[in-house]
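User: Hey, quick favor. My workstation is busy. Could you predict this chain's structure for me?
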Amino acid sequence: MEDNNGYKVVMQKKVKSKTYKVIMLMILVAFITFIVTFIGMYKYFTQDGFGKQLVSSSSSNNEIATELNKYRKIIDKYFLGEVDEEKLKESAIKGYIEGLDDPYTEYISKEEMEDYMADATGNFVGIGIYMVQDTKENKIMILSPIKGSPAEKAGIQPGDYIIAVDGVEYTGEEMTTASNKIKGEEGTTVKITILRGTETKEYELKRENIKVNPVEGKVIEENIGYIEFSSFDEGTAEEFKAKFEELQKQGIKSLIIDLRNNGGGIVDEALEIADFILEKDDIILYEVDKNGNEEIEKSENAPIINMPIILLTNENTASSSEILAGALKDHSKAKIVGTKTYGKGVIQQVLTLPDGSGLKITSEEYLTPNKTKINKVGIEPDEKVELPDTVENILTVEEKDDTQLQKAIEMAK
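Assistant: No problem, here it is.
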């Protein structure tokens, strides 16, 4: 399961569309790659399902079309081999989207779309891991195995790097492709190559139907509630509410919400949890599109949680987690303990295209209720607390070494 960056799931009505054949070229040199990518996306996305032109033609586009035709003639004359037009089209579209240089915008093929939407709801067939792209190392890092999953049972650990799937190596930039290779039919097996420190390990795991249940909670220090979850999947808000009510019956007087290493997920789930805490009609966030148009999200109900709240954050707290943290901080409903958050203050929409493929596209930036910018900035904690230098892995810190949690407990008292 790949990282759940903040997004809105938008399913567009499918319409009957005229088929446009997109002629692509085989890659000869980097320049040809650029041209093929551009023209493929131009023809694919500049017409809607009814054949209506969405953007006007320009002289630069015509020049590219002319160049494309020139190279096509070269290919037709010299290229030895068969051309898979569909494969070229899909590769070109992916390459074109990657040219936006936005790590959160991506093309999703028709075949991948079903799995992608299953991930969004927290249900999928695989080995049961949360993984993120380590941009510094350009590797795929396991954020955590899901409890009870094949990955956890096999001993895969947070912080492990996935370097190969079924013998094929993948970089961090290829995380989506690797994720799709890890998933498959229930009962089949997949081989995972893990890098742990300097040691390489091989695992052969059987795929299972994974139902994600990320919300966990307990009572600590007699009357302090503690709730932790790894992502905002479909149903997370309701699970959060149920867990809080369970702890409330045990007499808790304050609450610690641990958002450390929570990479985000479905925005509406974060809004709903904020609604449990904020006053009715409080602003939760502003959403601003490319034209500067604002949409305001407000709390719709009276709060059900009325007690001191401490939020734990770190550099892996991102997206939907930052929406929740920013809203509670600005309305003085919580104190934040830990380190500055990641700084992903943009929202994606998942659009279904007429042919069944999809596009997850960055469409809006969000601001906190005080109109504080988050993107590439992050949220500063009220109490900055670093983990000890002796902690080797922030994903597996033991409670006795967890100075951030200890500070939160102190403040919650």
